[in-house]
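Notes from hallway chat w/ T.B., transcribed later so I don't forget. T.B. wanted the structure written out for a chain they're using in a teaching module, and asked if we could keep both sequence and structure tokens in one place. Agreed to drop them here.
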Amino acid sequence: MTQLRLTQATLAVVGVLMAAGPDDRVWGLRLCEEANLGSGTVYPLLERLEKAGIATGFWEDPPPADRPPRRFYELTSAGRQEIAAAMMARSAARRRWLPAASPQHGVIP
């Protein structure tokens, strides 16, 4: 797998995918709406997540007669692990930038 960059867009899309239950299918337009991002951001991001093995996509089967089939997306188990590791690394990196806790600075960790 490749190094996952946790941009705001990535966090928004991954958040929607992580919040979806096993029977709660997520497709592109729904991701756009729930992540509050445009399709020009969401679809290239989904493509990168699929190529990295973080997410997988599959077509609605059987396709409905009254509309085109949807492409559903979900996180892979390896993708969930990579996201968790990337979020922990991001959190650790942010903590390094916090001022040291000391009584004179009045900073509470």
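Follow-up for T.B.: The mean pLDDT is 87. Might be a good example for the class.
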